[in-house]
Design a protein that fits this description.
The structure is a single chain. This protein is an alpha+beta fold. The chain has 2 domains: 319 residues, no CATH class; 93 residues, Lipocalin (Beta Barrel), CATH 2.40.128. 42% of the residues lie in helices and 17% in strands. The strands form 2 sheets. The chain has an 8-stranded antiparallel beta barrel with strand order 4-5-6-7-8-9-10-11. A 3-stranded mixed β-sheet has the order 1-3-2. A hairpin with a 5-residue loop joins β2 and β3. α10 packs parallel to α13, α11 runs parallel beside α15 and α13 runs antiparallel to α15. It comes from Halomonas kalidii. Keywords: Signal. This is IrrE N-terminal-like domain-containing protein.
Amino acid sequence: MNAGWRLGLALSCWLLASPAAGMAGLYDEATLAYWSRITPEDIRRVLDEDLSPAFEAEERGRLAGVELAFPLRCPVPASEPFCYYQQTLAGGRRQVVMSVASLRLFGDLALAMAWLQLEGLSIETPPQYLAMLRHRRPESFPEGRYPPPLAALGVPDDVRERKEVMELYGKIFTSSVVFVLLHELGHALHRHPGYGPEVSREAARRHEAEADDFALDVMARLAYPPLGMSVFFTLLAHWEPNRWHFADEAAYRAHLADATHPLTSDRLRGLAAALAERRDAFARAEPDFAAARERIDGVADEIGRLAGFLDDRDIQEGIVRLGRATEPAVLRPRREGELVIDPAVPAAGLPFAGTFQGTLGDASGELPAWLVLERHGDRVQGVFTYGLGLGHLEGEVQAGRLHFGWTLGLEQGLGVLEATADDGRLHGSWGRERSADDGGHWELWREELD
């Protein structure tokens, strides 16, 4: 519960352990088998009918023998849920692998993004859901497994019957998958090896840039705007480990040595620049050329901002904390700026009951906080948020003070609050584990929220 996100963030190795076993529980075999009869066929059709005709003669020749493989789950479990890679098989044959489970999760998150956007709701929750998968283990949830994405994000069951949602979803999902497929084909075209200790970081960066350039070149030839790229890379940025997830530079470099697709701020800046350079080619087939150029510039700007996002230690440490603290209740649909907790009716004449807002702080700073308390006799239960998930507290009023224990995701501790007699304001302290005051302070006042 670190307000400034800098104090004592112990990113122990278990945080970086692959949650692949838990990811396997998101979709059962029947669901994946169903989608395996649909999505791979669609991707093959797009490749054969739309993309291949745009290849130049030399490209077509070098890619003629490349195979597409769509296993239900990733053969490299640690790569889930972004299991997209190319590999060299016996005899020098090249193969592009895209797992159905990874395609399905991205599809569900893209569908949620489309629905949320068209409903005027916050689109922050799908990336937050992915951060939750990344930084919490499935057994930390009551059911012992991760909640399914569409249910966790509150997407209605009939969403696939809504034409406008499905149209926007199609643009996000298809353009992203086309970019990813072409990127992997770019690796095959250039005969790139996989990544490992024998491939330098500089070579890895060059390979990624070459594959990105091929993907964008082909899409530009087709005037196929990559409108879903910013969604894809936003989700990837909430999953992919970066420098701030590791204890030191050596540990980060060890990760990069094994990473099949290292996501770096340099790569994102290069993508943003490449998109901007090709804006006219992408926009030329659109009825409103000027508006289309602006949309491409918007995607490029969003990807460029993501580069700064990866370089910001506070943001990256905040994502870890957000993922650790997130639970399904925080992911419910809401409007931008709307609280994730419902206000409470204060108990008449009693302190430590009702809805409060104010600040929660530690030695490094303060953040806005909201607290909802329900009181039954001397027992008090409540929830709180300060922008990083939804915390719970439970305690008892003793001699005019509320002594409580709190939990926020995987963190816990104690605290004490006192009420000012004349206006019901609350102030006090919080601590970690068995301490009630080694963390920081609360300053809260009663607020009647609409």
